[in-house]
Amino acid sequence: MQVPASFDYERARSVDEALELLRRHGEEARVVAGGHSLLPMMKLRLAGPEVLIDINDLTELDHIDLVGDELRVGALTRHRALLESESVGRYFPIVHDAERVIADPPVRNRGTIGGSLCQADPSEDLSAVCGALHARAVIRGAEGERVVSMADFHQGPYETAVGVGEMLVEVRIPVLPGAGSAYEKVERKAGDWAVAAAGVALTLREGRIADAGVGLAAVGAGALNLHAVQTLMNGSEPSEALYEEAGRVASANCSPVTDSRGSEDYKRHLAGELTRRALRRAVARAARSTAREA
Amino acid sequence: MRITVNVNGEDRTREVEPRHLLVRFLRDDLELTGTHWGCDTSNCGTCVVLMDGEPVKSCTVLAVMAAGHEIRTVEDLADGERLDPVQQGFIERHGLQCGFCTPGMMLTGRALLDRNPDPSEQEIREAISGQLCRCTGYLNIVRSIQWAARKEAEDARAEAAETAGSQA
Ligand code: FES
Ligand code: FES
To answer: Are residues A40 and B60, on separate chains, in Cβ contact within 8 Å?
Structure first.
């Protein structure tokens, strides 16, 4: 039987109380929401917080709202709610593509977007999705809120911009006209972590690609925003030749390692091929939303 | 810590350590051993119980996190001697062999039918996709849940006909 090491448990009744608890306990405290990343790590003694601060009662962090030209998703929003949200599916089909293949239904009933992002596992799907979508993270602390880009949020494997005494409260995703997006993942079995995955988001403006975002999962750190591919795509007209080149650049600009899920070569191959497929679908979806909006 | 969890409609209070897992709380403290325990890593789904009506893996929920919530386990499916249609379906369509996955499978079937009384085969397969069966190959589990869906639809029709008849 796997049991975590002993810890103290506090259940926060408000965001302010959670922040106060985080401040008081400093480095030794961790926030727990769904617990499906943290508890397994605690059972394996890879994580050993002395205090767990349960934020499951903070319903103010469980929301999906369209505010102006962005969708604001509370950190406590469960995977299941994202998958069932009609507005998420309409504006960001990439999120629904990903959510269908994240773990399985009982896990999606508990796991949250905030937990996924804060875990900052380079193999985690929503991080790549949010990277591709140029989402921004709202971090709250004693001094108030700050808003950081996904690239700044993820500071390395298992490291985020959330400091001691702070917590992630919201994710903001820009809603753009003429947008299309898609996620492609290869997994060994249903519900598994990706062998490799690629997310692409873009808009079409007068037949040319703009606002391109490409995020890869499970091919090493620093792939949540592949600038080289984004630069290549922005301003270009969609074509098979462009997809080919984008795949080649994606595959050259990631750093997968050989493990039980596949060899470095195979993952590099997947990074290229999945980028091409996601790009093709994102363009097709953008063309449809352009037609709908016209 | 002293916690109170509503289990199968009854408030149960116990003193637990914060690291105590919900599956242990149910099995060891409350002696509700119908909830099984397998991989312990949120992979196999044999530990599935309903938390506020939705399936969760109880090996990856702390008992303290369940405090103040409603937990439903397999022990609560039957109403006295009367089996739940999902349980009846598992008998009629041979939905189990060793029975290890069965409590979790039946609870997921129950939760699915409560939300969606007429699920497609694909929806049933999706609902149970986080739970492993080592024996049946799943086909009979799907058929068992389909049997229960049909049975509940028939019962509802019969009941409606009866009410209509008694009013006439
Ligand atoms: S024992 Fe909980 S998922 Fe296997
Ligand atoms: S009946 Fe044996 S594990 Fe499902």
So the answer is: yes
